[in-house]
UniProtKB/TrEMBL annotation:
Domain CBM20 intervals: 481-580
Catalytic activity as recorded in UniProt: Hydrolysis of terminal (1->4)-linked alpha-D-glucose residues successively from non-reducing ends of the chains with release of beta-D-glucose
SMART domains xref list: CBM_2
E.C. designation(s): 3.2.1.3
InterPro entries: 6-hairpin_glycosidase_sf, 6hp_glycosidase-like_sf, Carb-bd-like_fold, CBM20, GH15-like, Glucoamylase, Glucoamylase_active_site, Glucoamylase_SBD
Signal peptide: 1-17
Listed name of the protein: Glucoamylase
GO biological process: polysaccharide catabolic process
Molecular functions (GO terms): glucan 1,4-alpha-glucosidase activity; starch binding
Record's keyword terms, sorted: Carbohydrate metabolism, Glycoprotein, Glycosidase, Hydrolase, Polysaccharide degradation, Signal
Length: 580
């Protein structure tokens, strides 16, 4: 009893000390972060030399060379700026925002290696800072960019509509949004490179932000009287929501980041998707993987735990202790280190969850989220806990403390200048890779907002129902470019597996990973024992494939001969197999 009491007091005191240290760090660091972010934006940012008006330089670094503008980074950075402007925090930001809009209007029209504005060019990931095309080899296309840009622009548009500026929005913002959303509606079912520019497949972050963009795009079009666009966006949003479910790995309790890539699939991709699709009106809805949903919380724990023993700086700290986290455990870029924006995303997801639990006055523990909650109280069981219960208080206090713990890690490895690079060393926390990464600074600002209890926007996630059958066809076969000549083929195989074992697909085409046994496509077990995956393949083509199973690092191929079939000329196709 006395021991428990002392432990409680000690815990309370150390949590309080951490909370006030984190508050004071963030008070200072958020000022540095805002200045650091603005310094990287043209034309007048002090570290943005060469960047034209409204262009966000990813980082003023020549090694690695980040003096380019990425559609993704720029949209995430401007979303943070726009939200701050819309909350009335700083009216002077309007100038930069209008410059960003003008720059994107130009950038959308620049022909580039992914195509022209009407043939897939919107999927180009990065441009030179004078807005000319970057023509070197790169992982392209990346299909999250247009969706993220649409979301940023819609947020700005909505704030202007609230200020009775609808005609301005219709003339200056809607045309850009429409181009991006038409691209998303036409191409969401096509593969592309993930947000880390490495894996060419479908990716959870990309699909999740596409879903959000289409939903809020339908509402935005309605508000502007653009009714012709509404039905298409709504129909495709439902299809995307359906596809989004397929990333969930039910046997291991996490969201698999990519359909390809041959990795564990544990990835900051999924926490980033949760925070950038947060909608407090949706509660803890799992269909949209809200930050407090059981699936997103379970996934967050699996992701965080994957870094405990691999980074020296974590000194194998056990759960629920906070640790440094990176993009994904297998990462080797610059040696594969923790990233500030990844560690901050963990904190932000937890702060978002706390906002919702407090607003709804209760918290729900399901069998899916039980392991997450048991980190904080081993005695907790499945059930709903009202805010008047001791369990609610115990859990939310411990979770707030864990969230602050992740910020405390970032604080520990922030140099005295307050500047933030992309990575910090896995062995000693020293800064690595690009210096002054604009996205790192934005990640501080959005986490501070969530820690202060300011909720994200209502983008229409509340009450969505996942359609019972999924269609995987986009609106256009060629209007967005890059999609003509491919058909969506769904592979379904009935296979009995043991816990921890997964089924993969490999075969005789690039999109089937060219028979690679290591870089293969993982199937979804959402309808176990039927495993499935949908892959875009060249139309009217004879192909061969096999399923493989991987368990404890051991790969087992299906017996010979290869499965063979010919893809249809257009539309979609389903193959139904039994493991042999
Ligand atoms: C550069 C990309 O920006 C980065 O995400 C990736 O890890 C490396 N290329 C891989 O070489
Ligand atoms: C590499 C990251 O993997 C990618 O997400 C980012 O867009 C670029 N660096 C630029 O910051």
């Amino acid at each position: 009893m006395r021991f428990l009491l002392l432990t409680g007091l000690w815990f309370g005191a150390s949590a309080w000390a951490q909370s006030s240290a984190v508050s004071s760090y963030l008070a200072t660091e958020s000022v540095i972060a805002k200045a650091g972010l603005l310094a990287n934006i043209g034309p007048s940012g002090s570290k943005a030399s060469g960047a034209v008006s409204g262009v966000v330089v990813a980082a003023p670094s020549t090694n690695p060379d980040y003096i380019f503008t990425w559609t993704r980074d720029s949209a995430l950075v401007f979303k943070a700026i726009i939200d701050s402007f819309a909350r009335g925090e700083d009216a002077t930001l309007r100038t930069s925002i209008d410059q960003y809009v003008a720059a994107q209007k130009i950038q959308q029209q620049v022909s580039n290696p992914s195509g022209t504005v009407s043939s897939g060019g919107l999927g180009e990931p990065k441009f030179n800072v004078d807005l000319s095309a970057f023509t070197g080899a790169w992982g392209r296309p990346q299909r999250d960019g247009p969706a993220l840009r649409a979301t940023a622009l819609i947020s700005y548009g909505n704030s202007l509509i609230s200020a009775s500026n609808t005609s301005y929005v219709l003339a200056n913002i809607w045309p850009l949004v429409k181009l991006d959303l038409d691209y998303v509606a036409a191409n969401w079912n096509q593969t592309g490179f993930d947000l880390w520019e490495e894996v060419n497949s479908s990716s959870f972050f990309t699909t999740a932000v596409q879903h959000r963009a289409l939903r809020q795009g339908a509402a935005f079009a309605t508000a502007l009287g653009q009714t012709a666009s509404v039905a298409g966006y709504t129909t495709q949003a439902a299809n995307v929501l359906c596809f989004l479910q397929s990333y969930w790995n039910p046997s291991q309790g996490y969201i698999t980041a990519n359909t390809g890539g041959g990795r564990s699939g544990k990835d900051a991709n999924t926490a980033l998707a949760s925070i950038h699709t947060f909608d407090p009106t949706a509660g803890c809805d799992a269909a949209t993987f809200q930050p407090c949903s059981d699936k997103a919380l379970s996934s967050l724990k699996v992701y965080v735990d994957s870094f405990r023993s691999i980074y020296t700086v974590n000194s194998a700290v056990a759960s629920p202790g906070a640790v440094a986290t990176g993009r994904y455990p297998e990462d080797s870029y610059f040696g594969g280190n923790p990233w500030y924006l990844a560690t901050m995303a963990v904190a932000e997801q937890l702060y978002d969850a706390l906002i919702v639990w407090k607003a709804q006055g209760s918290l729900n523990v399901t069998s899916t989220s039980l392991a997450f909650f048991q980190q904080f109280s081993s005695a907790v069981t499945v059930g709903t806990y009202a805010s008047t219960t001791a369990t609610f208080t115990t859990l939310t206090t411990a979770i707030a403390n864990q969230a602050d713990g992740f910020v405390a890690i970032v604080q520990e490895f922030t140099p005295s200048t307050g500047s933030l690079s992309e990575q910090y060393s896995r062995s000693n926390g020293a800064q690595l890779s690009a210096n002054d990464l604009t996205w790192s600074y934005a990640s501080i600002l959005t986490a501070v907002t969530a820690r202060n209890g300011l909720a994200g926007d209502n983008w229409g996630a509340a009450g969505l129902v996942v359609p019972s059958s999924c269609s995987t066809s986009g609106t256009g076969s060629s209007s967005g470019g890059g999609s003509s000549g491919t058909v969506a083929v769904t592979f379904k195989v009935t296979a009995t597996t043991t816990f921890g074992e997964n089924i993969y697909l490999t075969g005789s085409d690039d999109a089937l990973e060219d028979w690679s046994p290591t870089s293969t496509l993982i199937l979804s077990a959402a309808t176990y024992p039927v495993w499935s995956i949908t892959v875009n393949l060249p139309a009217s083509t004879a192909l061969q494939y096999k399923y493989i199973r991987i368990f404890n690092g051991v790969t087992t191929w299906e017996s010979d001969p290869n499965n063979a079939f010919t893809t249809v000329a257009s539309g979609t196709q389903t193959l139904t197999d039994t493991w042999r």
